[in-house]
Every structure is written in structure tokens, then in C-alpha cells.
Write a structure and sequence with these properties.
Elements: E1 4-7, E2 10-13, E3 18-24, E4 33-39, E5 46-52, E6 57-59, E7 67-72, E8 77-82, E9 91-98, E10 103-105, E11 109-114
Parallel strand pairs: 2-11
Antiparallel strand pairs: 1-3, 3-8, 4-5, 4-9, 5-6, 7-8, 9-10, 9-11
Length: 115
Amino acid sequence: QVQLVESGGGLVQAGGSLRLSCAASRSIVSANSMGWYRQAPGKQRDLVASITRSGDTSYADSVKGRFTISRQITKNTLYLQMNSLKPEDTAVYYCNSKGDLRDYWGQGTQVTVSS
């Protein structure tokens, strides 16, 4: 069992920045990969960025060059640095951990970008 707790969401103007954090209850490198997803009202939950156990990263096309996923292994914490935010980035952002048998999810943190 893994508990994930997100923080760092909030209201920001377009062009601004936020950094999301995800604190895990156990070693984040025990997961096959970890990632950030987002879900806007009435839409499906989509992958934003992910990082594998070995540290390889990938991003959705819509956030490439603006968002950066990183981790601090000693703190069991995953981050998402979000720059040049746009109103279309508004969503609930969820932390995800992929284990061998199942996925784990945080409770989500709201990000709202005003125009």
C-alpha cells in the first residue's frame, strides 16, 4: 500500500508558475514509474508527465517545454514544475504511482489558471 499526498495547487494568472509536490509513504523508486495526471471538468484524466524508476521522463505534447517532472528520492517526493501556465491547464492534478499489481493515486490538487 502506498499513500500519496499532493500539495502546491492554487490560483495563478496566465503566464505564472506553480510547483506541485507529491509526498509518498514509501520509496518512490520502488514504483515502476510515477507520474502526474490531470482532469478538467467533464473530461477524462490524462497523463501530463511521467518518470521511470531509472529516471527517464516523458511529457504530453501540450506541456512540453513548460512543465518539468522531477523527484527527490531521499524525501520520497515527486514534483511538477509548471511554468508559462495557460487557462487550459486548469484541472485537478493527481499524483500516480505504478506498482507491479496496481496503480496508486493521490487525492488531487486543484490548479486554476485565470486569463
